Amino acid sequence: MALTIRLSTDMSVAEMTPLWPDVIACLERYCRRFGTYETVSNIVRECAQGRRQLWLVFDEAGQVILTPITEIVTIDATGKKQLLLAEVGGRRLRECMPLLKEIEEWAAREHGTTECQLVGRKGWKKLLEPLGYAEAAVIWRKGL
Questions:
Q1: CB atoms near residue 66 (< 10 Å)
Q2: For labelling alongside 107, which of 8, 27, 67, 115 has CA 20 to 30 A away?
Q3: pLDDT per residue over 9-41, tens digit each?
Q4: Distance in angstroms (rounded) separating the CA atoms of residues 136 and 33
Q5: How far is the C-alpha of 64 from the C-alpha of 36, rounded, in Å?
Q6: What are phi and psi of 66, to 5 degrees?
Q7: Structure letter (DSSP) for residue 13
Q8: For residue 127, which of 43, 66, 73 has the smallest C-alpha distance?
Q9: Contact 10/102 with Cβ under 8 angstroms?
Q10: What gap in Å lies between CA 56 and CA 34, rounded to an integer?
């Protein structure tokens, strides 16, 4: 059995209930790394409100190993819809990258998105370029 991905809103409460400890562990792993920018409670709240989407990647034994978080945004100036790859926490990321195609297809089919964007560290380049992504900008930051 291969890795699989599901959108949490397509799952029942009964299906989701036993998965929460693994989901929270994945989100905590992300937040430990980027704790000044995001919290587990904020991610869960925004997904529950429908502002973002919680995806679950399952390993061969059915355990949640990765939790991609997405958001559908509309560019105010043009009305263009974009899939934003917001956060991802967990393990076996490299193995899970082919599943990104399912998220992209869902966003295009269900929301009419025409573009996908991820803001991330330089290490994402080696994972995303083979999937057709190209660097579009560099973010400069200064603490005040």
A1: 24
A2: 27
A3: 999 999 999 999 999 999 999 999 887 889 999
A4: 24
A5: 25
A6: -155, 145
A7: H
A8: 66
A9: no
A10: 20
